[in-house]
Specification:
This protein has four helices and no strands. By secondary structure, the chain is an all-alpha fold. Helix content is about 90%, strand content about 0%. The mean pLDDT is about 85.
Length: about 110
């Protein structure tokens, strides 16, 4: 019984570590992409990374919490996406946000 408990604990810890690594990887990737497209300063890059990391952490949490309730999950995810643009607008100037919007629209494929 104790061995099963230890194995389950290790498994859950491993899943959490893997999940956290994926979140960091996604936040890093989009931050690097934004840095390249928008020529972000180091300060802007750091702000964008924190915003993106927080975003992906929230998304992972919502997907786990509402995995059996697609309606609520979709609603909660929409809230995260709406907040994302507000936070990015505060971190970046209007010109860079417009450039990012244009870039995203032209690269939807």
């Amino acid at each position: 019984m104790i061995n099963k408990f230890i194995l389950l604990t290790i498994l859950l810890f491993s899943i959490n570590v893997f999940s956290q690594k994926e979140v960091v990887k996604k936040a890093t990737k989009i931050t690097e992409q934004m840095t390249e497209v928008l020529s972000l300063s180091e300060d802007e890059k750091a702000k964008v990374y924190e915003i993106q990391l927080n975003r992906f952490q929230q998304i992972a949490s919502i997907r786990e919490e509402y995995k059996n309730d697609s309606q609520t999950r979709k609603s909660e995810l929409k809230k995260v996406y709406r907040k994302l643009f507000g936070k990015l607008n505060k971190a970046l100037d209007k010109e860079k946000m417009q450039s990012w919007k244009t870039y995203k629209q032209s690269n939807k494929n």
